[in-house]
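Researcher: Here's a chain I'd like modeled. Treat it as a single chain, no partners, no ligands.
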Amino acid sequence: MVTRIVAEFENSKQADRAVERIMTDVHGIYSANIVQKPAVSAVTDKPLQAVDSVAEEAKENVRKDTRTSLYIVCDGSRSDEIYSLIATMGGLNMA
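Model: Modeled as a single isolated chain. Structure tokens:
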């Protein structure tokens, strides 16, 4: 059975190291991808009037860090091993 594993990392270096380790140590990996997305927080203390104001506030509140996600497609029999390696390498929010 083919399984997809998703995990987040605090930075891209951790995700890179995790991918290298998983690709070299675990058999049955079909693909591994790292995706970086800017982290946005649109916190406000006043009600928003329109969608445009949401976009403007989001632009003002973009944090400088990025969220790095790791996506792995693998043989399902290897998922426990992969989860263990991801946790060891600093992975967060695994699914």
